[in-house]
Design brief:
Pathway: Cofactor biosynthesis; thiamine diphosphate biosynthesis. This protein is of the alpha/beta class. It folds into two domains: 175 residues, FAD/NAD(P)-binding domain, CATH 3.50.50.60; 145 residues, D-Amino Acid Oxidase, subunit A, domain 2 (D-Amino Acid Oxidase, Chain A, domain 2), CATH 3.30.9. α1 runs parallel beside α5 and α2 crosses α5. The longest helix has 25 residues. It is globular and about 65 Å long. Bound molecules: glycine. The site of glycine (GLY) has 7 residues, from loops.
């Protein structure tokens, strides 16, 4: 069995693991990532909405603060990544319009608007006519909406590719293999072993394996992160140049209780998402899922039936018990977590990379990330587990 050594080993090369590895390498840590396909994972499916304001939910005010902080960091993060790699990320500050199709939807949106206002967020109520003036392709029946210019978008596939390139340029080593187990010695995480038996040794290990994080062999049962897969089916359509601009910003709604959103990219791609299904590890694209998305999107924007349907795909969000991520020291010395980002993985990528790098260098979470310590889920106070025997 061969063995390789680094300061930091990141298990999982999705956008969260890559941002963590990039920022750690920038801090001078010799960093490696283990993943069979770096840049893959849920980012290959995600629409890339940076929707801190339009995806606000009751009871998630603490998460809102982290979401807003990450949104605030996005311009600098995207500019730095583009400057380093020469890659366009599809970062588009064109805003979001959340609309209502009937009286129930309207009441729901009014409630959301009140919550946004109480939280000090910028959102403007528009009549149906004003919504259609902004987006002429909207259905005539739209009853009103919320204009949120601060909710932007990025293309997660381009983001993932740019992060791989940034890691390579920063000296991150990629081990293109599955981490089969976490290795622990003397009550400390010391690395991971890949499927072919290679031992990857590191001073510190970051578990950033998305929905798979909850089942890595070798992590003590009581410290396994409580993440679960939440399936999302997503469609991609193409807007032919003769229809452009089909939509000028993200348009979304809740239709009969289900979220539907349409995210128009500058390159003509139109992403339509997403289902939310608690079906374990299933990533089947179903006729029912595609039907419901198209039916709801068609109610919002009838003209979509003219567009070529270019892709259907399902991904797995890493859901956590409180819908917020688990960041920082896990309770097992040498093991940190960066997982459980649920619906906000793309939005939270910049702040996650920063706070994990800070925790790797200092051993502490910075102020803005403290509410997201994995300790909040511990049955036994983790301080006790961390004390040397
Ligand atoms: N944030 C969008 C989704 O999870 O579907």
């Amino acid at each position: 069995m061969s063995s390789r050594t680094s300061d930091v080993l990141v298990i999982g090369g999705g956008i969260i693991g890559l941002a963590t590895a990039w920022r750690a390498a920038q801090r001078g840590l010799a960093t490696a990532v283990v993943d069979p396909e770096p840049g893959g994972g849920a980012a290959q499916v995600a629409a890339g909405m940076l929707a801190a304001v339009t995806e606000l939910h009751y009871g998630e005010e603490t998460l809102l603060a982290l979401n807003l902080e990450s949104a605030r960091r996005y311009p600098g993060f995207a500019a730095e990544l583009t400057e380093l790699t020469g890659r366009d990320l599809g970062y588009r500050r064109s805003g979001t319009l959340a609309v209502a199709l009937d009286a129930d939807d309207r009441a729901h949106l009014r409630e959301l608007h009140a919550l946004q206002q109480r939280s000090g967020l910028a959102a403007e109520w528009l009549s149906g006519r004003e919504c259609r003036r902004l987006e002429p392709m909207l259905a005539p029946g739209v009853r009103g909406g919320l204009r949120v210019d601060g909710d932007h978008q990025i293309d997660p596939r381009r983001l993932a590719a740019a992060l791989v390139a940034a890691c390579e340029r920063s000296g991150v080593v990629f081990h293109r293999a599955w981490a089969e187990r976490l290795d622990v010695a003397g009550d400390r995480a010391v690395g991971a072993t890949t499927a072919d038996g290679t031992g990857l040794r590191a001073e510190q290990v970051v578990l950033a394996a998305g929905s798979l994080s909850g089942r890595l062999v070798g992590v003590p049962d009581e410290l396994l992160p409580p993440v679960r897969p939440v399936k999302g089916q997503v469609l991609r359509l193409a807007v032919p140049p003769r229809y452009a601009p089909f939509l000028s910003r993200t348009v979304r709604a809740v239709v009969r209780g289900s979220q539907v959103y349409l995210v128009p990219r500058e390159n003509g791609e139109l992403v339509v998402g997403a289902t939310s299904e608690e079906l374990g590890w299933d990533t089947t694209v179903t006729a029912g899922g595609v039907y419901e998305l198209l039916r709801d999107a068609h109610e919002l924007v009838p003209g979509i039936t003219e567009l070529p349907l270019t892709e259907t795909r399902a991904g797995l969000r890493p859901g956590s018990p409180d819908n917020a991520p688990l960041l920082g020291p896990s309770g097992l010395p040498g093991l940190l977590l960066a997982t459980g980002h649920y619906r906000n993985g793309v939005l939270l990528t910049p702040v996650t990379g920063d706070v994990l790098a800070h925790a790797l260098v200092t051993g502490e979470l910075p102020e803005e990330a403290r509410p997201f310590t994995p300790r909040r889920f511990a049955a036994v106070p983790l301080e006790k587990l961390e004390q040397p025997a």
